[in-house]
Design goal:
Blueprint (H helix, E strand, L loop, with lengths): L1 H47 L4 H11 L4 H12 L7 H13 L9 H12 L5 H17 L2
Length: 144
């Protein structure tokens, strides 16, 4: 019985050690796809609006001067919150800011409130304001 447990433990340990690099590679590839999708979404959005494809890619690259992974994480905090912002409208807003070469300050409460108000087109509830405050605090940890 003890021999079987030892063999089973060894097999489980070996399989865990063998599969760990695969899992890490998959996670890294998944993160890369999300990062690329933000800059690609901005470029596609601008191209759909009539801007040349090469120019829209350059605008998107210039816009994402900060670490794209951090920007993706900050954006994910907004998407996963109870403040329901339409993804298309959010990307339209970000694309417009990129086109006008304006900073998108996802770690600023005032900026998040202004952005959410413009996207929703209505007055934000107290719950939305509290949630945006929490998001701004979370996002500020990424910019330290």
């Amino acid at each position: 019985m003890t021999k079987n447990k030892t063999i089973l433990s060894s097999v489980l340990l070996a399989s865990a050690l063998t599969l760990t690099p695969i899992t890490a590679t998959l996670l890294s590839a998944n993160t890369q796809v999300k990062i690329n999708s933000i800059s690609n979404s901005i470029a596609q959005n601008l191209h759909r609006r009539g801007i040349d494809e090469d120019a829209s890619k350059k605008i998107a690259q210039r816009f994402l001067t900060m670490d794209e992974e951090l920007f993706s994480l900050m954006l994910q905090n907004i998407k996963n919150s109870s403040v329901k912002l339409n993804h298309e409208k959010l990307m339209d807003f970000i694309s417009t800011q990129a086109l006008m070469q304006k900073n998108v300050k996802l770690d600023s409460y005032a900026y998040l409130v202004s952005m959410a108000h413009k996207i929703k087109g209505t007055v934000l509830s107290k719950e939305d304001l509290k949630t945006l405050n929490i998001i701004a605090q979370k996002n500020s940890f990424y910019t330290l």
